[in-house]
Amino acid sequence: MAERLLIVEDEETLRESLKRVLTQAGYEVDSVGSSEAALQTLDKKSYELIITDIILPGVNGIQLLKKCKEKNEKVKFLIITAFASIETAVEAIRAGAFDYLVKPIQHQEIKDTIRKALQS
Questions:
Q1: Domain boundaries in the chain?
Q2: Residue 34 — pLDDT band, cuts 50, 70, 90?
């Protein structure tokens, strides 16, 4: 059975591009545009890995990570952002993110990172 991934990204073009690439790579992929939608989705379905932007409307990606880890500490997280800083990278990793990727996202890089996260 394919591993389930959830993409949380408010930029629709990137969200749909990632969904297409990761579906073609053999994953079962759902995508939403906000943390609130992600939390509603997570009430109904579980995922092995969640990919989230840091900057989202409402609850940010790191706060989402913390909320999800409270419910399921085994879920893996990849944080993506266009506004990288040492501070946010450290905060994301301390909160439990597997990795922190900077936009623009390279398809091969994210597929490799997902594979490593799911194997860890």
A1: 4-119
A2: very high
pLDDT band at 25 (very low <50, low <70, confident <90, very high): very high
DSSP H helices, the chain, are 12-24, 35-44, 61-71, 86-95, 107-119
Average pLDDT, the chain: 94
**pLDDT for res 84:** 80
Which CATH code of 3.40.50.1360, 3.40.50.2300, 3.10.20.70, 3.10.310.70 fits the domain covering 4-119? 3.40.50.2300
In the numeric block, the tokens 């409307």 are attached to: 57
